[in-house]
Amino acid sequence: MFGGSSKEDSSSGLVERPLYRPQEMQQMGPFKVSPMGFGTWSWGNKLLWGYDESMDTELQEVFNVLVASGINLFDTADSYGTGKLNGRSEQLLGRFLKEYPGSPQAAANVRIATKLAAYPWRLAPSQWVGACRASLRRCGVEKLALAQLHWSTAKYAPLQERLMWDGLVAIYEEGLVDAVGLSNYGPKQLARIGAYLDKRGVPLAAVQVQYSLLSRGPEQASVKAACDDLGVALIAYSPLALGMLTGKYSAEDPGSLPGGPRGLVFRQAERGPPVLPGLQPLLEVMGEVAARRRKTLSQVAINWCMCQGTVPIPGAKDLRQATENLGALGWRLSDGEVRALSEAADRVPRVMVQNIFQTK
């Protein structure tokens, strides 16, 4: 397990030095994870994130730097990757882990958490076991730390929902994972499946939802409270609100907005005012905190998530983004700063649209 010392691999020049104290690690079921993880949604996704195979060399460097800095939780999914690149995220993660140039101890400490899609043809437990085995092959490991249901079907296919629970049980009983998790589950459905898994002796380790300064309303607060009651970790995905909390984008400069579907989320004017114009007061408070701390807006936003007791999993497409995200480690916002940021977020007139699959 990572501690406070550093180690240099003479062949690669890679220095392994965790950027946090051991006591900052979070318990996630039967294992411990770094206070911040890493999400691989963009790996293989051309539509939303502009992925190209030419990025792979730098993505390996991103992985190397993250592991050397003490990041040991990597979140992926069997549906990540568009078109013919479906499953690319898991494949890259497996390759990068195999080719990690640092110490075997650091590589062995990596915890891979994948999400299994609720495809309509995945019904029988054997199909879920087969899906998990396919993820294991792509990731190049014998066992996953965490297998998560990517989303609930309770809203549109309630009969399949119960079958998915049996699928999770089967995956665990086959010894393919250390624990199981959920993604996009609200408190009521979480309580139901939590009780079911408990009866079957299957440890529920984590629940993953969209969570940030722009996704912190009553719904997400209730999920966090339910996780606390069950003693499970909350993994915060999109802690930078798809980039809106980085300060890179401006409503006054349409040319600064990302293209494609992600740009539509930034505008999202069909049900009220778009997010960006009302975001400036929050960004100003974030900027004041960042200047005082000598940090960036992204680092402040990620640190705020950690201060809420969550494990944020920002992504990165290049070394610059990865290095910036790592700057969120090793320090903590004060209670007053957390309160000021939360109050400023409360005044934003339009927050992020929550994932449509998140249940009640």
From TrEMBL:
Pfam families per record: Aldo_ket_red
Entries under InterPro entries matching the protein: Aldo-Keto_reductase, NAD(P)_OxRdtase_dom_sf, NADP_OxRdtase_dom
Keywords on record: Oxidoreductase
Molecular-function annotations in GO: oxidoreductase activity
Domain NADP-dependent oxidoreductase, chain residue ranges per copy: 35-344
Superkingdom, taxonomy of origin: Eukaryota
GO terms for cellular component: cytoplasm
The keyword Cell membrane belongs to this UniProt entry's keyword annotation: no
Name of the protein in question: NADP-dependent oxidoreductase domain-containing protein
Source organism of this protein record: Chlorella variabilis (Green alga)
